[in-house]
Amino acid sequence: MLTYTPPLKDMLFVLNEVLAAPALLAQLPAHADVDTALMREVLEQAGRFARDVIFPLNASGDAQGCTFDQGKVTTPDGFADAYRQFLDGGWPALACATEDGGQGLPHTLNCALFEMLAATNHGWTMYPDLLHGAYSCLRAHGSEELKQRYLAKIATGEWLTTMCLTEAHAGSDLGLLRTRAVPQLDGSYKLSGDKIFISGGEHDLTDNILHLVLARLPDAPVGSKGISLFLVPKFLPEGQRNQVHCTGIEHKMGVHGSATCSMQFDGATGWLVGEAHRGLNAMFVMMNSARLHVGVQGLGLGETAYQNALAYARDRVQSRAVERPAGTSAPADAIVHHPAVQRLLMNQRVWVEGGRMLAYWSALMLDQAEHDPDVQQRTAINGLLALITPIVKAVLTQQGYDGASLALQVFGGHGYVVETGIEQTIRDARITMVYEGTNEIQAIDLLMRKVLADGGRCLFAWLDQVESFAHGVADSQDGSQAARHARQLLALTEGLRTRLARIDAARTEQPRLPYDIAGEFMHIVSHCAFGWLWLRAELAAAALIDQALGDAKCTTACYYYTFMLPATQQYFAVIDASLAAGNAFPKDLINQHAA
Ligand SMILES: Cc1cc2nc3c(=O)[nH]c(=O)nc-3n(C[C@H](O)[C@H](O)[C@H](O)COP(=O)(O)OP(=O)(O)OC[C@H]3O[C@@H](n4cnc5c(N)ncnc54)[C@H](O)[C@@H]3O)c2cc1C
Hints:
Radius of gyration: 24 Å
Bound molecules: flavin-adenine dinucleotide
Strand content: 5-15%
Order of helices and strands: HHHHEEHHHHHEEEEEEEHHHHHHHHHHHH
């Protein structure tokens, strides 16, 4: 069975030493009193909840799954009670505003909380995972009346929420959705249509469920510009059952504890959120929050996988290592001493620790984007956050899945059998690369919408900062390992700038080029972020009083620059080859091949 220890030391290293979160939060009036001690206290309590309350339900929830009977969904044993404890502890309200009944703490801490929740029970965590997105969406776009009625219920977690986008024929392309909303004389709407794959569409954790639903008004233009957003409660304000029902749940590869529901809206009463036909705009508030949360799911799952692979590698004895531990006379060594196994483990560690820096940095930007007193600063940070969000979603979920798979490799054949538990982590992690916008859609969003659409302005402004930092390290610490890494980082950003200019120049002649290489482009940008963060970590580690921790972080930073960053050469090579190939390929690559 899996074990989990909240990685508080690593979390606090990122928050306090790498990101200097307490100092940055102190500049935001809303979070001026959030200091290191408070952060530690919250993380310790959150870690206890995750480890002691929901982790014991992880394997049993997977084995039992949810059940469906005549419209009712029952979650696995213990899930409802765990949610009650979550509610009583005030955890759903952590990052919601105090005036709405929340605790008013930073998103940065909420991010760390959800890392630990996903690490210990991904299926259970999917129920409260959408709450903050729904809260932010309603707060930003809801009418005063809707906010009065529902905001506090969401903020406190008394009622859970869903995100009803997907229909059988409309997945990535929401412009195809058909659910209709007909205006009523009293200002409400009647919604009719069928949604599929709705997480938490029905369950037994809360008395009421609030659905945020995308639908079309009768006069809606076709495509994504004709979509509006509605709030549809399971129970109406006067207590009657609304005409929205769960018609079944999916039997699926992983996250068995999370009910994935088919939902039927049969003249259900709802209210418009935001402007008519601008529903995607409003929904994006929720989707962006959800995308960061999904990235954090990848991070949490990767952490659990790593912890368990490491423990197993220390215990499992096979063959003599090429460099044996001092004083060993046993016929064989623990596999943790074999370089090949160390590579498997370090690949996991470097992604988990790098992913944590990226995720917490994003969450910190979310706090700044909401609360920085300087409006220009808020706008700039919002732009950068929009740029980084698809990377957090796609890259961290890929790393979570890959990390779980590497962990299984460390377990050998024992990882492939159910008892060790690691195969559940792989099954659970796999969906994160698909839902909340597939990773292909994220890569295209980054290159087309976030970079090329604004002429690369936001990306370049951020690269300027990265380069200025790297130049500072290269110049001031010449001859050091950090200076060598800084120069590697500068070569990377320069390579990125050159390729982007070439992609931009070639795209009129080669219209499919950006779509072909969006994945490679995303990985290169992500390495600019990881390289920058690892360089910061390396400097912070060198100044630590805890020398063992500092040495470990410096080693991991060096590992990143030695074994991971060079992968960008391959991404550059693919982009260069695609540029050189011009229009050598037929338009319909696959069908020609099939013929
Ligand atoms: C367990 C689970 C939970 C979910 N929870 C929710 C939920 O709570 N709410 C909700 O609304 N939905 C939910 N979903 C749905 C999920 O968001 C969709 O499955 C996802 O967005 C992809 O849509 P699709 O499955 O229709 O795949 P498709 O859109 O058909 O995509 C199939 C493939 O084609 C690729 N593709 C499609 N379009 C493009 C394009 N333009 N460019 C490049 N590649 C493209 C995709 O990347 C993918 O590889 C959930 C799904 C699952 C399995």
